[in-house]
Fold this sequence. Notes:
Blueprint: H1 2-39, E1 50-53, E2 57-60, E3 65-75, E4 90-98, E5 104-109, E6 121-124, E7 127-135, E8 152-159
Amino acid sequence: xxxxxxxxxxxxxxxxxxxxxxxxxxxxxxxxxxxxxxxxxxxxxxxxxxxxxxxxxxxxxxxxxxxxxxxxxxxxxxxxxxxxxxxxxxxxxxxxxxxxxxxxxxxxxxxxxxxxxxxxxxxxxxxxxxxxxxxxxxxxxxxxxxxxxxxxxxxxxxxxxxxxxxx
Length: 167
């Protein structure tokens, strides 16, 4: 009698395991098909801008790198409704890490100014990463303090040697 109970239990566990494997296979098929649909739309074909919210992290498969927009370290841009002598600059802190490299922090500015150590582009792992835009733009009423945590940036990524496109 004990032998029959053990054999019955083993058989029941085997059948239960088979049904769990079938469910896992069907869910994997749907996720793979969803991934294929996303791969059909390249994120950065021909210099398209890739957008990040403050604190956002994205793995860019076509470049084999992970990109994180840490935040804005400096925003001295002239408010939209004010006449200024100098246009000012916004500096974004971006952390990049390739699949086989260590993380690297880049400071990308809205303008090139070697005297103040501002650069719109930086090289990483055979690519040139350029800052294309920073939004929102400050206004005289709220200033830049009201924008903290609400920044969005757009970057472009090109193979080193190609001219980076910024709009």
